[in-house]
Specification:
alpha+beta
Length: 161
C-alpha cells in the first residue's frame, strides 16, 4: 500500500479521530486545563493531573457526583462517542451505502460534540465554567463530508473500479 492509498483510505483517515484531541479546555478561574479525546480526557489542576475515562464520567453521573448541566453535557459527549464508534464499525461492514451512512453518523457525532461543549461552556464556548476550544471539530466535519463524498465519487459511471 503506497502513501496515496493510505491517504485516500477512509478507514485509516477515520482512525485519526481516535488519536487527535477533540477539545482543549481551561477550567474556570484558571483552576486547571486539559485535553479531551473521544474515550477520555487528561486534565491538570491545582490538585494534580489525572486521566478520566468516559466510563468514570458515567459513573459520576449515575452516583450523583456530577449533576445539572455538567451531567447533560457529559451524556451528550457519550452520545457523540457512541456515534463515532458506531460509524467506525459501520465502515468495516460490507453493506451498501455503509460509507455514506458513516459520514452522516460522524457529522451527527460532531454536532453532538459541539452541543456538549455549548451546554457546559456557553454558546460562545466561554463562560463561568471556563473556556473550550474544539480543535478536533473541523477534522470531524471534514471526515464526515469526505465519507459522504467518497461514496458519490465511487459510484460515478466513469469510475472503473
Amino acid at each position: 500500500m503506497d502513501i496515496k492509498e493510505i491517504i485516500t483510505n477512509h478507514k485509516v483517515i477515520y482512525l485519526s479521530l481516535f488519536v487527535i484531541p477533540l477539545n482543549i479546555f481551561i477550567i474556570s478561574n484558571d483552576i486547571g486545563f486539559g485535553l479531551q479525546w473521544i474515550f477520555f480526557r487528561y486534565q491538570i489542576t491545582y490538585l494534580g493531573s489525572s486521566t478520566i475515562p468516559i466510563t468514570a464520567d458515567l459513573n459520576y453521573i449515575l452516583t450523583g457526583v456530577i449533576k445539572g448541566k455538567s451531567a447533560i453535557s457529559e451524556l451528550t459527549l457519550v452520545m457523540a462517542m457512541v456515534c463515532f464508534v458506531g460509524a467506525f464499525i459501520l465502515l468495516f461492514s460490507n453493506r451498501d451505502n455503509a460509507i455514506r451512512e458513516s459520514g452522516y453518523i460522524t457529522l451527527i457525532g460532531g454536532i453532538l460534540l459541539v452541543i456538549s461543549q455549548m451546554i457546559q461552556y456557553g454558546v460562545l464556548l466561554h463562560g463561568p465554567a471556563g473556556i473550550s476550544i474544539p480543535v478536533g471539530v473541523p477534522l470531524i466535519f471534514f471526515i464526515g463530508i469526505f465519507l459522504i463524498k467518497e461514496i458519490k465519487n465511487n459510484s460515478s459511471p466513469n469510475n472503473i473500479l
